[in-house]
Amino acid sequence: MTNDEIFDLLVLNIPKNFLEPLQYIKTVDLKGSYSDSIFHSSKCTNVNLSLKVSAYYLNPAEATLCKLIDGKIYFPSLGEKGVFDPNSLPTDFQTVLVSQLQTLFPSDTFGCCSSYVECSDNRECVHPNPYYASGCMYKKNLDAGRIFYGVNKISERIEYAVVDLETPNQNNDRISAISITLVHGSAILETKSNLVNPEVPFSPHNSSLTGITQSMVHNAPTFPQIWDSIKTNLQQHIFVAHNATFDLTVLFKCSHGYCLDVPPIRYIDTLEVARNVFPDLSHHGLKPLCDALDIPLEHHHAESDSRACASLLTYFLNKGVKVDSYIHTFDGSNISVSCEKSSCDWPAHTTHAKKLSVNTQQINALLSILESVCEDGQVTEDEVDQLLAWIEAHPELSKEFPYAVIHASIQEALQDGILERHELQQLFKNFLFLLDPLSYTPTCKDADLTGKLVCLSGDFDFGTKEEITAFLEKMGATVHPSVVAKLDYLIVGNCASTEWSSGKYGNKIKKAIQLQLKGRPVQIIRESDLMDALKKCSVSL
């Protein structure tokens, strides 16, 4: 492996919470030869990093994380135990890497602005400048629900509210069931479950998946009727779910649809934790994890899913996983839905700013079926037969993406009339890509945008699209409003757009994938990957 490849491997193993405070991480070739008790080499490359400027860490000096010598990763402080072959990294390599990173970061007590009592009283950081406040370590305690000062002082471990939602149809903007399991320390306390009258029609697919029908919720409370108790739980605990952004997005859409205010929510995604704890597992869905850990699960039933996810959380806690380091904040204030309180039986309710066409709704139904097929980590012959039957029953969708791609891949696998194991595995990979293409997009390594034609999709962490456009043009790129055949890059923001017709992606991403299938060189790049590539080149952001 080249040093560049080893460097990329290192960065991939650094947890996200350590990457966020970094100003940059880069390689530096030493001019002289390197020698110590283990290595005597004429070539040595340091992997150096620097933290962002903050109130706590005002002048961060560049520090060396490790060395790349003779194709090996070397942590000198660990002696002989600090030498790793990048081609055969041990399972505990990330733990070793994290231990080295921790020595380069400030302590986790509190920062130096001395306002921690006031922050504790307000349950939030009161520093007027969020840029400088980002370096305060006490803010991490606040975000994690640990408060050591003032009127809200607590000494016990934080509690978690493990949530699972079920939806009545593919719009995913109303709730038909909600279950909340409370966890204190590493003990599961109680589970509270409610059927909810969503006041919209159910789809047959969702009813078959969840077992919840229209008649079952006829006398159930509506979402506004139970909102106060839900809101209290969310304010007092850390929200936990598997694939949490889905549940949070549904929650915000449903709340906004009823004109209910939802504060920003602190949350932990057990899917993210599982991917770091079990890097060798091929699938990290709730069902495969429960099967592997022998956790009881009746999938797609809110109470069972909630308790299973709570069991998964307690497994991590009992294993000593620092789940608090995975706490994020979800602010759904930019999620836009129509706010309606209709007295009719089935009010017209839209998920997106523009009403979805019948064909788009059908494609979303197809994607929902595809998700159900893939959720157990495999595709069976029976599932392929059922999927093919649905596809052939809807020929009116033949010009809609990804109908034709799914149909063609199944037909190709069935050419000889037999579905071999490797063909089923390939279908599974194809389906996963079509469900969430951004998760299977290759990492961007080229930060040179000079003369490149680019297009933007989604919402960006870095700034508004106008700010992103100005930045890219400064880097030498030309920004085009749409996806065209000559496009070099489609840059997708870290935040999903509420305008995307298919939840995970919209028309621009669809067009880019279609161009790729036709052999066009357009690349789909995630915002985070582009920014990482720019940092490697020491480009000032």
Provide structural commentary.
It is a single chain. The protein has 541 residues and is an alpha/beta fold. It has four domains: 3-102, no CATH class; 159-330, Nucleotidyltransferase, domain 5, CATH 3.30.420.10; 358-435; 453-536, BRCT domain (Rossmann fold). Helices cover 36% and strands 15% of the residues. It contains 19 helices and 17 strands. A six-stranded mixed beta sheet has the order 10-9-8-11-12-13, sandwiched between helices. Helix 11 (286-293) packs across helix 12 and helix 13 (358-374) packs antiparallel against helix 14. Residues 54-59 and 340-354 have low confidence and may be disordered.
At the third CATH level, what is the topology name of the largest domain? Nucleotidyltransferase, domain 5
Number of domains: 4
CATH architectural label of the largest domain: 2-Layer Sandwich
Low-pLDDT residue spans: 54-59, 340-354
- What Rg do the Cα atoms give? 25 Å
* Largest beta-sheet characterization: 6 strands, mixed
Mean pLDDT comes to 81
Q: What structural category arises from helix and sheet content?
A: alpha/beta
At the first level of CATH, the class of the largest domain is: Alpha Beta
**The named CATH superfamily of the largest domain:** Ribonuclease H-like superfamily/Ribonuclease H
Q: Work out the strand percent.
A: 15-25%
User: How are strands sequenced across the largest beta sheet?
Assistant: 10-9-8-11-12-13
For the secondary structure, the number of strands is 17
Q: Based on Cα principal axes, name the global outline.
A: globular
Number of helices: 19
Helix amount: 25-40%
Whole-Å distance between the termini? Answer: 29 Å
